[in-house]
Amino acid sequence: MLLYRTDDGLVLVTQGRSLRLAGLSLDEILQDRAPLALLEAHAERATEVDGATPQALAAPIGSQDVWAAGVTYFRSRDARMGEARASGGATFYDRVYEAERPELFFKSSAARVVAPGGTVRVRRDSAWSVPEPELVLVLDAAGAVVGYTIGNDMSARDIEGENPLYLPQAKVYDGSCSLGPAVLFTKDPLPPTTSISLRIVRGGVLAFEGATTTGQIKRGFDELASWLFRDSSFPVGCYLFTGTGIVPPDEFTLASGDQIAIAIDGIGTLTNTVA
Predict the structure, then answer these.
(1) Directed axis angle between helix 90-98 and helix 74-84, to 10°?
(2) d(CA 183, CA 44)
(3) Which of 31, 95, 146, 196 is least buried, going by the fewest C-beta atoms within 10 A?
(4) Which of 249, 250, 222, 275 is nearest to 69 (CA)?
(5) Could you please report the per-residue DSSP string of 141-156?
């Protein structure tokens, strides 16, 4: 089931039908003890609408916090070590990749999340910034993985590389987080062959493209969720970025007007433009 959020409410696409779920919010879904059963019950009495996919989309989030896991891919570990080598912090990334405890950090409040088709930003004080295409876990109030969406974790590589303690400034700022286009609600885990791809177009010309699969993520999704919910509660659920395995070359940095497209099998394509 794919759940879209529009200005007129939630639209559920299932079995080739688009259903408007009147009077239901993502907060209500994710705080319920059985989110998938709740969706199925509302679908039975929902009104069918035209079109398989809504056109005017809001970010598919209610009032949830957005968190992120880092250094979950080997490729990401290498890139982070390269960023931090000059500051002497390279070993931190190698150690966290091998450690039992993952790197987890706060990414965005719901109000700051950019919608599909919206504009993301590069920090004014960054000269080396990239998008980080990621699978995002949708977690209910109990910490269970009940769905997935696509995320763009905009990152200032030069600021993080200068000092690992600058990570919040490199990762958390206006326009640094985008989600969408939909949440895939499913009882089944994603297969490890699930593709994640990134395309960046500049002035009508392809500037970068890359791809990986969810099978390249070192840590299990339930494992990441359990660490996030350890001594932290999320009454209306939470969203958790799972890290990136696609890193543009060191000489690449985003520019104003760049078009970013992140696609994940079964969910769709999240598109944004750099402001």
Answers:
(1) 160
(2) 19
(3) 95
(4) 222
(5) TTS-EEEEEEEEE-EE
**Residue scoring higher pLDDT (125 or 53):** 125
User: What number of other Cβ atoms are within 10 A of residue 157's Cβ?
Assistant: 24
Topology of the domain covering 65-274: Fumarylacetoacetate hydrolase; domain 2 (3.90.850)
Q: Contact at 8 Å (CB) between 21 and 12? A: yes
Cα separation, 123 vs 126, in Å, equals 5
Q: 198, 25 in Cβ contact below 8 A?
A: no
Residue with the bigger pLDDT between 87 and 225: it is: 225
Indicate the burial class of 117 (C-beta count within 10 angstroms; 0-12, 13-18, 19 or more). Answer: middle
Domain boundaries, the chain: 2-48, 65-274
CA-CA distance, 132 to 122, in Å (whole number)?
A: 13
CA angle 72, 220, 92 (to 5 degrees): 30
pTM above 0.85, yes or no: yes
